[in-house]
Amino acid sequence: MGFAAGLIQRHAQTLSLRAWEAVSRERTLQGVLEAVTEVLLPVVPFDSIGIISFEGGQHDLFAMHIPGTPKLDEETLEEYMRRASHPTPLATPPRPRITYPPETPKKAKARIPYVCNDLLEREAWFEHEFHLAAGGVRSYAAIPLSAGDQVVAVAPF
Questions:
Q1: What is the mean pLDDT of residues 13-30?
Q2: How far apart are CA 95 and CA 41, in angstroms?
Q3: Using CA atoms in the order 84, 134, 90, 119, what is the torsion angle rounded to 10 degrees?
Q4: Which of 41, 75, 83, 151, CA to CA, is 20 to 30 A from 106?
Q5: Contact of 32 with 26, CB cutoff 8 Å
Q6: CB within 8 A of 152, min separation 6: which ones?
């Protein structure tokens, strides 16, 4: 391994450790998202972070944090998103819906992230991308979250 690659690997390990330390102190999902934001935002700029649940075959937004906008205790996600200075929905032409490729579960179990640099450049969208576009998201990275060997959710940011 070269010198630069070694530095990058050490930086990634340090960042992972800092994120783990921040998350391990939290007792609520909202607190976890806020802690992850504090660690990652200085290194990877993003507008929001969330968790999309796969339960029941749906791809529903389960939790969300928008940096600079704390979520109120009794506030629903819909109320939070309306109150936050969040991007406006994307004006997009109709797009065909595509199914996830067969290798998706393997990549998710291996915790390989998926990156979409620009939704508007894609001719067809996955189911969850319609929801992201409705929330004003144009680009995102999705990190699989698993419990044991089962992928239970994805965290887009």
A1: 75
A2: 31
A3: 110
A4: 41
A5: yes
A6: 53, 54, 55, 145, 146
Please compute Rg for the chain using Cα positions: 17
Query: Is pLDDT at 121 greater than 70 in this prediction?
Result: yes
Angle at 71 between CA 119 and CA 32, to 5 degrees: 75
Q: How far is CA 156 from CA 41, 60, 62, in A?
A: 14, 12, 11
Distance CA(71)–CA(77), nearest Å, equals: 8
Rounded Cα–Cα distance for residues 133 and 142 (Å): 14
The pTM is what? Answer: 0.67
Lowest mean pLDDT among 5-9, 83-87, 102-106, 138-142: 5-9
pLDDT band for position 139 (cuts 50, 70, 90): confident
Tell which wins on pLDDT, 52 or 87. Answer: 52
Residue identified by tokens 């690997």 is 9
Buried b (16+ CB within 10 A) or exposed e, 34-73: bbbbebbeeeeeebbbbbbebeeeebebbbbbbbeeebee
Element (H or E) spanning 63, and its range?
Answer: strand 60-65
